[in-house]
Amino acid sequence: MVQGIANWSTEQSREWLQSYVDDWVAFYRKHTGDGKVATYIPELAKANPDALGITIIGKNGLTVRSGEVDEPFTIQSISKVLSFIVACMERGVAYMLDRVDVEPTGEAFNSIMHLEMKQVKKPLNPFVNAGAITVTSTLNGRTSDEKIEPIFALLEKIIGYRPSLDIDVYESERDSSMRNRAIGYYLLETGYLESDMNTTLETYFKQCSIKVTVDDLARIGLILANDGEDIDTFEEIIPRPIARIAKALMLTCGMYDASGKFATYVGIPAKSGVSGGIIGAVPPRVREEVLPFMEGCGIGVYGPALDDNGNSVSGIRLLRHVASQWDLSIF
Ligand code: DON
Predict the structure, then answer these.
(1) I need a surface site. Which of 23, 226, 239, 292 has the fewest CB within 10 A?
(2) Residue 119: per-residue pLDDT
(3) pLDDT of res. 105
């Protein structure tokens, strides 16, 4: 484990941290061959399977970035964190938790097995597709553009610019996502959809197609790590209770049916997406020794080659290594 430095925020120690991360990215890039790029959305199949990038931004501004940090990719399921936050801000936490539960499923992200098997038809959490589509249906607005606007506005506040949609990925998912349409019909039958099904799905496909980089993901992670408060202006970007629920859900449900393993071996509230992105929110830790990023940090990772759970194969291994070397676990 890296330790023994009195102050990890000097330029010299930043250079050390940078050289560690450069080595780790070079090492774990060799693991990308153990995974496969998602193909069920045809447009995602075009991603470079060998890409691997990471950005870590500390609460004091200390930034380390390595690999494909400037390569844009679509946010995919990481958008479910943002739509849930926005829905809680619009409707209130109690209202939302009446409509989606907060329990892990142990099933694939697009499974509807639990909806059918349980007596209670409420989706198990906002990060499985059934829950995410339910959440999206509660967003204010009549059209998909009106519904998605507050997600763009929140992102703009966090990352400092208005991101764009990847229209090709959006159209590709819209035209191929039969499973999500099946989930939409199922939710229509059970009464959980609060908006017209086509508008809801259009909004969901759009939110998944927002273009980001690992820098953007690290900034989102940092805001969450800081309980929703901007580190420079101290403005409340996300109300603290909502930021905390989002982190609890990330820890318990953020990596789909690998969430338990990720919590055990990495120990960071995180959320993955099928394009290979992972967001991590590391709150301040209390330790006897002085460690890098002790005051908390946000992490963004990109590695489009996925494991069997639909999570970035080299991204998870890289994160696990960084977390163990710098003792980033919240436990
Ligand atoms: O619903 C879908 O299929 C995608 N647009 C989002 C899924 C996703 O990112 C799952 N991630 N592991």
Answers:
(1) 23
(2) 60
(3) 80
- Kindly give the distance from the C-alpha atom of residue 77 to the centroid of ligand 1, in angstroms, as a whole number: 5
The alpha carbon of 271 and the centre of ligand 1 are apart by a number of angstroms equal to 11
User: How far apart are the C-alpha atoms of 31 and 18, rounded to whole Å?
Assistant: 20
Find the distance separating the first CA and the last CA of the chain, reported in whole Å.
Answer: 16
Query: Which atom of ligand 1 is nearest to 180's Cα?
Result: 1
Q: 109 near 133, Cβ under 8 Å?
A: no
Centre of ligand 1 from the C-alpha of residue 55, in Å: 22
Q: Which position has the token pair 């759970």?
A: 309
Please tell me if the CB atom of residue 109 comes closer than 6 angstroms to any atom of ligand 1.
Answer: yes
CB atoms within 10 A of CB 153: 12
Dump pLDDT digits (tens) for 158-201.
999 999 999 999 999 999 999 999 999 999 988 989 999 999 99
Cβ-in-10-Å burial (0-12, 13-18, 19+) of 330 comes to middle
Q: Identify the pLDDT of residue 7.
A: 72
Is the CB of 200 inside a 6 Å radius of any atom of ligand 1?
Answer: no
Q: Which atom of ligand 1 is nearest to the CA of 177?
A: 3
Listed as ranges, residues in the chain with pLDDT below 70 are: 1-6, 9, 113, 115-120
Which position has the token pair 């990023």? 293
Take residue 39 and report the two structure tokens written for it: 């193909």
Provide the pLDDT for residue 139: 98
Cβ atoms of 249 and 126 closer than 8 Å: yes
* 76 Cα nearest atom in ligand 1: 9
Strands 277-282, 270-272: pairing is: antiparallel
* pTM greater than the 0.90 cutoff: yes
Q: Which helix (H) or strand (E) holds 270?
A: strand 270-272
Side chain identity at 101, as an amino acid letter? D
Residue nearest to atom 1 of ligand 1 (CA): 129
